[in-house]
Amino acid sequence: xxxxxxxxxxxxxxxxxxxxxxxxxxxxxxxxxxxxxxxxxxxxxxxxxxxxxxxxxxxxxxxxxxxxxxxxxxxxxxxxxxxxxxxxxxxxxxxxxxxxxxxxxxxxxxxxxxxxxxxxxxxxxxxxxxxxxxxxxxxxxxxxxxxxxxxxxxxxxxxxxxxxxxxxxxxxxxxxxxxxxxxxxxxxxxxxxxxxxxxxxxxxxxxxxxxxxxxxxxxxxxxxxxxxxxxxxxxxxxxxxxxxxxxxxx
Length: 250
Description:
With about 250 residues, the protein is mainly α. It has eight helices and two strands. Helices cover about 75% and strands about 5% of the residues. The longest helix is centred in the last third of the chain and has 33 residues, at about 170-200. The radius of gyration is 18 Å and the shape is globular.
């Protein structure tokens, strides 16, 4: 779902950049008003490492397509929506500038689709499911994770359709169809990750030894992801499959 450079040549990426910068600014302003503890900083860094690692491990979706986890609702649940948006934006920046995953020119658009929508809207859906419908944390997070992936895929489909001004329904049907299984996996993985972190790796400020172990675990996870990158699946992602299907490049 990381959009490469030169895929979109309209004003859509620049409009997305404006919304992404605004969302990041609001998130930073909110966090500056909060009293952030040492465990909060560790939490932010470790969750960012986990998200980076999750996105580095593709898995087959069938139809000769592969996908990967996004971690948007997981970030919102662990860090809050403002912290989750900034964490995801940081991951996307590292991927774009250091590994060429997603174009640097499209960083604003990728941030909008994955961070603002995936974390922001996905986190808001999770909160509403817990408050209004009284879902427990894991069910609400899993359901919100599913909708967040489909929402991001749907938005990207509309952005692509706006570029060509036609075949919006066809592009969206292919993109959402390929992303459906990816969204189901995201749903289950989000609930499982939250259970693991809540029960096995709680962030307690008064337990420095545990914080150190969590930091080491996060670092090792990133190193494992970096080692795995050269061996990752070469099957096309839902976005790449859609590009090939519709011969999208000009």
